[in-house]
Design a protein that fits this description.
There is one protein chain. By secondary structure, the protein is an alpha+beta fold. It is 29% helix and 20% strand. It contains 13 helices and 23 strands. It has helices at 2-37, 53-59, 77-81, 101-114, 129-132, 200-211, 248-256, 266-275, 307-315, 334-344, 385-388, 495-506, 530-560, and strands at residues 69-73, 118-122, 147-155, 173-181, 186-188, 195-198, 217-221, 260-264, 279-285, 321-325, 346-348, 352-354, 367-369, 371-372, 397-399, 404-406, 416-418, 421-430, 436-438, 444-446, 454-464, 470-478, 518-519. Strands 7, 8, 9, 10, 14, 17, 18, 21 and 22 form a 9-stranded mixed β-sheet that branches. It has a 4-stranded mixed β-sheet with strand order 2-1-3-4, covered by helices on one side. It has a 3-stranded antiparallel β-sheet with strand order 5-6-23, with no helix packed on it. Helix 8 packs parallel to helix 9. The longest helix is centred in the first third of the chain and has 36 residues, at 2-37. The two termini are 12 Å apart. Residues 38-43 have low confidence and may be disordered.
């Protein structure tokens, strides 16, 4: 009899232990699956992690074999999953807060689960600083845990659609990427900074479509005495070790910013420039010989290739931009100068500058630090806003520089209208007070007694395409090729910030589509009436114990009389 009781008790203990162990095991397993596969119960009325049919329609057109997209977060998984609205949708703009990152992260996981060519990964701001370097556009770019990076690592292709290979025959891979901030995914009330909408699906789908396919192309003009290495017509491929002579540092910076970089002789390959749908930027770097043609009436003259007409047609294309770097020289480039002045209000003065004052970086004053343009009427101030907002202004390096004149017709707050376009021109960097400017006619201008003169200027044009979309065009003129030298683009100076800002704007293909905003709801738990609360107290706290006591009593009585 005693043996039978011991056997029953042992069996009961074994069953109890097994049940507890099974419950723990199931709990651990479900928690792991929920964490790994984003299985969770969304108790809010709004489904923030929904991908609608509109997004699916666009994303289904992408070839998984041609795209390898990674969505990088700079905070770890646990931080992101706990970063909800904190029971409030009031937001103060604190850059250290992870407010609202949870829903961005969970939506990214849904994209990764649905599409094989999309994945989600994490980078640490400190430990992965080297990996993050390629996503920096300038020294003022700072990474915090609110940043999201969309990176597509794709093989480069030539103008015929064939893969580009390096000297060893390996395919040349390129990173086409976008960097955005947490606030980009939300709609805020402009007065109270109150978050009222979540547009995660719109942002993710737009950025994924933007980085998919070929990266934007930057062309360096060739054939006018530019010192950008040897070049053969028809060989305008892009590799990481190609020789670009004096423009090498600029070329490498543009390449590292996500562009495919090529050389082009527009007198022989103008059709390539004008028909390449990926072309975004044309760089004219210190030409020694003039461009052919200047008369607008000769645009279609088949007897000679009008290079100025090609420049004009290129800059009139949607999302195509121009950069011109020129050192002071006695070489006259009347056709190029006339085009820049007549169409963009910018003119190189062929002057020289020496600064032997406190801004000088070398004894003879040929290399010096420039001053920032601060007039809010100049479109150039937007390029330096990130630098001017820093606690300490970064130094801006200019060497062997001249000055640029800005046509006053373009440089006021009204701008210059032509057809359906309006152009604004203005200074970016100007001569310091301690500078001495020697003009072409030999006149020396004292910087202390004269108005600052532009060392770099820009024209910003806004025009409208046939769909009535607002399209920007940028034309940058810089009277110094040393501004983009290896030294100038190093982390010691702020030169790269302006170029980086422009590259972000020029290389950004905006993909837009219509999708409804998700209305943000408060996460506060709604209170219930006291009477309903009393009912739930009885259901949860009273009924289960009573049932257990009754069942226990029945089992005890039956065993007692067994």
């Amino acid at each position: 009899m005693r043996y039978e009781k011991l056997k029953k008790r042992s069996l009961a203990a074994l069953i109890t232990t097994s049940v507890v162990a099974a419950v723990l095991l199931v709990n651990i397993l479900v928690s792991y699956i929920a964490s790994a596969n984003i299985l969770y119960l969304d108790l809010t009325k709004t489904n923030y992690t929904e991908i609608t049919e509109k997004s699916e329609e666009y994303l289904s057109t992408l070839d998984a074999a041609e795209n390898d997209i990674t969505i990088y977060f700079l905070a770890d998984k646990d931080e992101l999953q706990n970063a909800s609205f904190s029971y409030s949708i009031e937001y103060t703009g604190d850059t250290t807060s992870l407010w609202g990152m949870k829903y961005i992260y969970e939506l990214a996981l849904v994209y990764a689960e649905k599409y094989d060519f999309i994945k989600v990964a994490h980078l640490d701001i400190s430990d992965d600083a080297d990996k993050l370097e390629k996503y920096k556009s300038s020294i003022s770019t700072t990474f915090n845990k609110q940043r999201i990076i969309i990176d597509n690592c794709i093989p480069e292709k030539d103008e015929n659609g064939n893969p580009v290979v390096d000297a060893d025959g390996n395919p040349v891979m390129h990173h086409n990427f976008r960097v955005c901030n947490r606030d980009y995914f939300y709609y805020f009330d402009s007065e109270n900074y109150y978050a009222y909408g979540f547009n995660g699906e719109l942002r993710f789908t737009s950025m994924i479509m933007s980085v998919a396919g070929q990266s934007p192309v930057a062309y360096f003009a060739y054939g006018h005495g530019e010192d950008i290495g040897d070049y053969t017509v028809g060989s305008n491929t892009s590799t990481s070790d190609e020789d670009y002579g004096d423009a090498q540092a600029l070329r490498d910076y543009i390449y590292d910013s996500g562009f495919t970089v090529k050389k082009i002789d527009i007198s022989k390959e103008y059709q390539t420039l004008l028909t390449d749908s990926s072309a975004r930027l044309l760089i004219i770097f210190d030409p020694k010989n003039d461009f052919t043609g200047a008369d607008a009436e000769s645009d279609d003259d088949s007897s000679t290739i009008n290079e100025i007409a090609v420049l004009r047609k290129f800059a009139n294309r949607e999302n195509c931009h121009l950069m011109v770097f020129s050192d002071p020289s006695d070489n006259e480039l009347p056709n190029l100068s006339e085009y820049l002045y007549d169409y963009w209000g910018l003119s190189f003065d062929n002057s020289t500058i020496k600064d032997r004052g406190t801004n000088s970086l070398v004894p003879d004053g040929s290399i010096f630090m420039a001053d920032y343009e601060t007039s809010e009427l100049s479109p150039g101030t937007s390029l330096t806003a990130g630098l001017r907002n820093l606690d300490s202004l970064p130094r801006i390096y200019f060497g062997n520089a001249g000055t640029i004149s800005v046509n006053s017709t373009y440089s006021n707050e009204i701008g210059y209208y032509e057809g359906n376009a309006i152009r604004f021109a203005g200074n970016v960097f100007v001569t310091p007070d301690s500078a001495e400017i020697t003009l072409k006619n030999g006149t020396v201008v004292d910087g202390k007694t004269a108005d600052p003169m532009a060392l770099m200027a820009i024209t910003y044009e806004i025009w409208y395409n046939d769909k009535n979309n607002e399209i920007p065009t940028y034309v940058l003129a810089c009277a110094s090729t040393d501004y983009v030298s290896e030294t100038a683009l190093s982390n010691e100076y702020g030169n790269s910030d302006v170029i980086g800002y422009l590259l972000r704007v020029m290389g950004k293909d905006t993909f837009t589509f219509d999708v409804e905003m998700k209305v943000i709801e408060t996460e506060e738990v709604e209170t219930i009436s006291q009477s309903l609360m009393n009912v739930w107290i009885v259901v949860i706290c009273v009924i289960p114990p009573v049932i257990s006591l009754v069942l226990g009593a029945v089992v005890f009585v039956k065993r007692r009389h067994a």
